[in-house]
């Protein structure tokens, strides 16, 4: 569930090169625990053998031996061999990446051209080098409660370990910028006031925090250049954003510059000239789709450099060295990239090999001659080193990519909603079976201001591949309100929670039935966050369409969502009010309650599996507790699972193992697909 907060605060990882790894907690007796777990497993395997269940749905049962082998659940939630998030140091001498050391998640570091790799255990969400290449900085949310800390590692110091640079309780800290020629970090934190973020300069050598700017209460973003100078700030008044530049002669020390509406989708990227008068930005000001523009900060004049007629630009990479664009990315169906440098285009195209792929540069040295890149597809991610001279070197691959040979293919699809709105999405069909009259899972993305992508990743947790392996057709619809398709498409979701947003999902199911792909009597709806809300809406508002539903960290009450929102959503809450209403207004609250599944539970409500992290601060546990209570009071079937030590999206592999196992067993009973049954990793999960 994304807030409309304009501050660049950490969210569940979304970048290229991420992977799901074994996330055992850091305990000195981990090996002994695993040894005991393995001993117990060995004693119990014979008794538990044969627990896998075959398909009962006629279309799958008829396929018999043609179905591919069941991939163990553990291969989807943990990997001892999978790696990712490779980052080259700015001086080009070292390489860092995320993987596993023994039984613990870790960051690995080695010298380029050598085999001196060393592991530093930590469960990080993201990883970055300091500009002087002496420190690694990891973003850590240890318990899923968004109490996010920055940890630093002095890679040159013998015996060094991770040091928490922001050891403040119940605060959220984020790395904004590294400082050229220095180990220093520009960091935002809400330690002073939970609702807003101040700007600090942090010295990782001493842990010293120097206040650069205090938020007067209306600053939604700080813009810092690579020299560590506060270049500008964005202030918010109602729906108007004003970009202000430091000016000692101006009232209050700030001079007003360009202005825009908060819903114009302006994202500042990098400086476009040495004087700092222009910046590169992704902007939808005066147009429907976000374009790459050169922006004059004084008055907002834009020069469009690259745009797409059909979709927003997803992201753009700017060269710090030349201050010119390198690559612009978009996603109309399969990934698309516009590479502005001919030599770089040649290098990235070679990695794709003529096949659809999202080829992303993940790091560069200061010369920008040596790069790391990720090639992401519908079946995993592979990481490469692109040296200044010579062919690409495969560095590693995600856990899912290690089993890519047994995975299904996803393809983009298009359809038309009942009111004529064009919709897009993805369809993943199970291998080894004719795509006719299959049980189908409608997998709904969260946000809702996000989108499903062709590549597997955080929005779906690779669930489409897991479900396809169990025998299901998997449909993902980018319903109205999804990002990526322009402002008009997004704004068609205003007032349409449990309305036309849900109609789009139902229309997707009808399309799959009309195509002959889906068995209309065996359709489930599943999702997390907003997707979990959609699943609850499906089970309560349209039980005639769905046989069952799976809700993960979804909201059952829209009013409760906003009343219990984290303090740092304060500046962005107007966006929620615009789309769903303000619960403080009685007329809005009545509308919100009418769109809330909690108040729609009845005798026709479909069977539900509800799962929730106990530390969730975005959609609090109370949302699921209330829904489960209402279902039980109504005598409706519900399974309820909570995850200790996690919040709005699991990080711990034992919790993900439980989530996947519960999912396959629930759907096997409801839709008639396959289940792998007991996974022997379940015996060891208690150790972590």
TrEMBL record:
<feature type="region of interest" description="Disordered">
    <location>
        <begin position="1"/>
        <end position="22"/>
    </location>
</feature>
<keyword id="KW-0645">Protease</keyword>
<dbReference type="Pfam" id="PF00326">
    <property type="entry name" value="Peptidase_S9"/>
</dbReference>
<dbReference type="InterPro" id="IPR029058">
    <property type="entry name" value="AB_hydrolase_fold"/>
</dbReference>
<keyword id="KW-0472">Membrane</keyword>
<keyword id="KW-1133">Transmembrane helix</keyword>
<keyword id="KW-0812">Transmembrane</keyword>
<dbReference type="GO" id="GO:0004252">
    <property type="term" value="F:serine-type endopeptidase activity"/>
</dbReference>
<keyword id="KW-0031">Aminopeptidase</keyword>
<protein>
    <submittedName>
        <fullName>Dipeptidyl aminopeptidase/acylaminoacyl peptidase</fullName>
    </submittedName>
</protein>
<dbReference type="GO" id="GO:0004177">
    <property type="term" value="F:aminopeptidase activity"/>
</dbReference>
<feature type="transmembrane region" description="Helical">
    <location>
        <begin position="32"/>
        <end position="50"/>
    </location>
</feature>
<feature type="domain" description="Peptidase S9 prolyl oligopeptidase catalytic">
    <location>
        <begin position="461"/>
        <end position="673"/>
    </location>
</feature>
<dbReference type="GO" id="GO:0006508">
    <property type="term" value="P:proteolysis"/>
</dbReference>
<dbReference type="InterPro" id="IPR001375">
    <property type="entry name" value="Peptidase_S9_cat"/>
</dbReference>
<dbReference type="InterPro" id="IPR011042">
    <property type="entry name" value="6-blade_b-propeller_TolB-like"/>
</dbReference>
<keyword id="KW-0378">Hydrolase</keyword>
């Amino acid at each position: 569930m994304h807030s409309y907060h304009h501050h660049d605060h950490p969210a569940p990882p979304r970048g290229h090169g991420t992977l799901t790894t074994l996330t055992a907690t850091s305990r000195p007796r981990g090996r002994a625990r695993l040894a005991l777990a393995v001993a117990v497993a060995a004693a119990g395997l014979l008794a538990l053998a044969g627990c896998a269940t075959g398909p009962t749905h006629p279309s799958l049962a008829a396929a018999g031996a043609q179905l591919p082998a069941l991939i163990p659940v553990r291969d989807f939630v943990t990997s001892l061999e999978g790696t990712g998030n490779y980052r080259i140091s700015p001086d080009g001498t070292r390489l860092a990446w995320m993987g596993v050391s023994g039984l613990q998640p870790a960051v690995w570091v080695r010298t380029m051209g050598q085999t001196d790799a060393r592991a530093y255990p930590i469960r990080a969400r993201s990883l970055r080098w300091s500009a002087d290449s002496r420190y690694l900085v990891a973003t850590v949310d240890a318990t899923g409660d968004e109490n996010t800390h920055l940890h630093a590692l002095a890679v040159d110091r013998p015996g060094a370990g991770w040091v928490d640079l922001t050891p403040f309780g119940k605060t959220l800290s984020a790395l904004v910028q590294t400082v050229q020629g220095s180990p220093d970090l520009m960091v935002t934190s809400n330690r002073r006031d939970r609702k807003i973020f101040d700007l600090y300069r942090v010295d990782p050598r001493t842990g010293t925090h120097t206040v650069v700017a205090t938020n007067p209460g209306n600053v939604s973003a700080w813009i810092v250049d690579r020299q560590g100078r506060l270049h500008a700030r964005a202030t918010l008044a109602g729906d108007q954003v004003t970009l202000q530049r430091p000016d000692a002669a101006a009232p209050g020390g700030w001079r007003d510059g360009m202005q825009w509406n908060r819903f114009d989708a302006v994202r500042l990227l990098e400086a476009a000239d040495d004087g700092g008068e222009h910046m590169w930005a992704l902007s939808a000001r005066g147009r429907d789709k976000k374009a790459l523009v050169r922006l004059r900060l004084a008055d907002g004049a834009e020069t469009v450099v690259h745009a797409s007629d059909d979709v927003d630009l997803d992201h753009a990479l700017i060269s710090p060295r030349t201050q010119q664009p390198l690559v612009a990315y978009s996603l109309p169906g399969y990934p698309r990239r516009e590479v502005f440098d001919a030599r770089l285009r040649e290098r990235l195209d070679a990695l794709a090999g003529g096949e659809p792929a999202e080829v992303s540069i993940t790091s560069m040295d200061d010369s920008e001659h040596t790069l790391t890149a990720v090639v992401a597809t519908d079946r995993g991610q592979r990481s490469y080193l692109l040296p200044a001279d010579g062919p690409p070197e495969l560095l590693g691959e995600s856990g899912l990519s290690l089993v890519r040979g047994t995975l299904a293919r996803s393809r983009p699809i298009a359809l038309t909603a009942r009111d004529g709105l064009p919709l897009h999405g993805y369809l993943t069909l199970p291998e080894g079976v004719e795509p006719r009259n299959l049980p189908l899972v409608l997998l709904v993305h969260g946000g809702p201001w996000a989108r499903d992508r062709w590549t597997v990743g955080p929005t779906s947790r690779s669930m489409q591949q897991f479900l396809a392996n169990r025998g299901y057709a998997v449909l993902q619809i980018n319903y109205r309100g999804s990002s990526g398709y322009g402002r008009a498409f997004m704004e068609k979701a205003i007032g349409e929670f449990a309305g036309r947003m849900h109609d789009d999902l139902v229309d997707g199911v009808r399309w799959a039935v009309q195509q002959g792909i889906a068995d209309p009597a065996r359709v489930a709806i599943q999702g997390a966050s907003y997707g979990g809300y959609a699943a609850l809406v499906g089970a309560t508002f349209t039980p005639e369409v769905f046989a069952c539903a799976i809700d993960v960290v979804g909201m059952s009450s829209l009013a409760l969502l906003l009343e219990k929102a984290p303090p740092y959503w304060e500046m962005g809450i107007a966006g929620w009010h615009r789309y769903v209403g303000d619960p403080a207004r009685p007329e809005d609250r009545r509308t919100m309650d009418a769109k809330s599944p909690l108040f729609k539970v009845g005798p026709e409500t479909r069977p539900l599996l509800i799962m929730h992290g106990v530390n969730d601060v975005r959609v609090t546990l109370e949302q699921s507790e209330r829904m489960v209570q209402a279902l039980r009071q109504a005598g409706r079937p519900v399974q309820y699972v909570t995850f200790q030590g996690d919040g709005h999206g699991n990080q711990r592999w034992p919790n993900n193992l439980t989530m996947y196992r519960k999912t396959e067993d629930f759907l096997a009973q409801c839709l008639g697909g396959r289940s792998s049954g007991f996974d022997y990793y379940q015996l060891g999960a208690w150790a972590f």
